[in-house]
């Protein structure tokens, strides 16, 4: 597939740690990053479905190490012809993902800042261009990077409890990278996406369903099973036809991202090096700490 060639030719990651494998219940395998706490990835070869369960307390934040480990896992799945579907969900109550680890963006070590954004762009590319049927099982708040994970998937199912989903980057003084802007607009349309991105809006499940940000809202205890059913439905379509169609539809966005990757990384680096941005981000982090008390 040309799509696979796209992300495989993208800059390779430096592996942080080797992976360990453990065997469970015959056909099922599970592999976890050696940091163990960030996520668990299980695969069922009978169904061909993998489930990535984020489990990094307190909010499944996406640090440089976490994103790197996810990239390695996605590449392994992409190369495993026994696996054709991926569900992404969370084991932390009320939380899907709170997005990037903001403490790595506030007063950052400048030598790692570019690496963070490079790794994040590769994560977007791997997930957005994946040959797998990807379903986000959103069982909690999906903010910023958490919403990005959902946007990259083929289908989004959200729990009906009053969780919120959206891209609130402007609220913390940031402009989202081009690939994120495009992902949002592709899903909800230009007019709705432009307003949501400028205002940093967050949406409740019914609102998200109305604008097309999610495809389905179900009871909290039905999210994962609904995701399994959806993946199985998509897998009934001949794989080559489904993958070629996905590739054709997403290729313009992928090409645009690849062409502007360096520009986007420079933009985020310069923005996060700016004193005004750092002040806004610092105030936001301080407000979060007050809420925790």
What topology does this entry show?
Elements: H1 2-9, E1 19-24, E2 28-33, E3 39-44, E4 49-54, H2 64-78, E5 85-90, E6 94-97, H3 110-128, E7 133-138, E8 140-143, H4 145-152, E9 155-159, E10 165-166, H5 178-188, H6 190-199, E11 202-203, H7 205-211, E12 216-218, H8 223-235, H9 239-259, H10 261-272, H11 275-292
Parallel strand pairs: 4-5, 5-7, 6-8, 7-9, 8-10, 9-12
Antiparallel strand pairs: 1-2, 2-3, 3-4, 10-11
Concise account of the structure shown:
This protein has 293 residues and is an alpha/beta fold. The protein is 48% helix and 19% strand.
Can you describe this structure?
The chain has 293 residues and is of the alpha/beta class. The protein has helices spanning 2-9, 64-78, 110-128, 145-152, 178-188, 190-199, 205-211, 223-235, 239-259, 261-272, 275-292; strands at 19-24, 28-33, 39-44, 49-54, 85-90, 94-97, 133-138, 140-143, 155-159, 165-166, 202-203, 216-218. The strands form two sheets. It has an eight-stranded mixed beta sheet with strand order 1-2-3-4-5-7-9-12, sandwiched between helices. The relative contact order is 0.13.
């Amino acid at each position: 597939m040309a799509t696979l060639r796209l992300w495989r030719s993208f800059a390779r990651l430096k592996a942080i740690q080797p992976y360990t494998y453990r065997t469970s219940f015959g056909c099922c395998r599970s592999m976890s990053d050696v940091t163990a706490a960030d996520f668990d990835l299980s695969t069922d070869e009978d169904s061909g479905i993998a489930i990535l369960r984020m489990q990094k307390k307190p909010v499944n934040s996406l640090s440089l190490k976490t994103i790197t480990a996810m990239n390695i896992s996605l590449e392994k799945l992409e190369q495993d012809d026994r696996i054709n579907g991926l569900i992404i969900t969370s084991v932390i109550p009320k939380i899907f993902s709170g997005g990037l680890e903001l403490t790595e963006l506030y007063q950052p070590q400048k030598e790692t800042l570019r690496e963070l954004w490079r790794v994040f762009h590769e994560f977007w590319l791997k997930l957005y261009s994946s040959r797998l049927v990807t379903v986000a099982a959103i069982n909690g708040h999906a903010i910023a990077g958490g919403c990005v994970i959902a946007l990259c998937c083929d289908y989004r199912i959200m729990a009906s409890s009053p969780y919120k989903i959206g891209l609130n980057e402007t609220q913390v003084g940031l402009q989202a990278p081009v690939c994120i802007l495009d992902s949002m607009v592709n899903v909800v349309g230009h007019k709705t996406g432009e307003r949501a991105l400028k205002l940093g809006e967050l949406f409740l499940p019914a609102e998200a369903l109305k604008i097309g940000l999610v495809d389905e809202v179900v009871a909290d205890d039905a999210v994962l099973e609904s995701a399994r059913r959806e993946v199985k439905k998509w897998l009934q379509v001949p794989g080559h036809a489904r993958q070629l169609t996905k590739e054709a539809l997403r290729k313009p966005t992928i090409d645009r991202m690849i062409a502007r990757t360096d520009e986007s990384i420079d933009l985020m680096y310069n923005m996060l090096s700016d004193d005004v941005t750092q002040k806004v981000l610092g105030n936001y982090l301080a407000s979060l700490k007050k809420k925790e008390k």
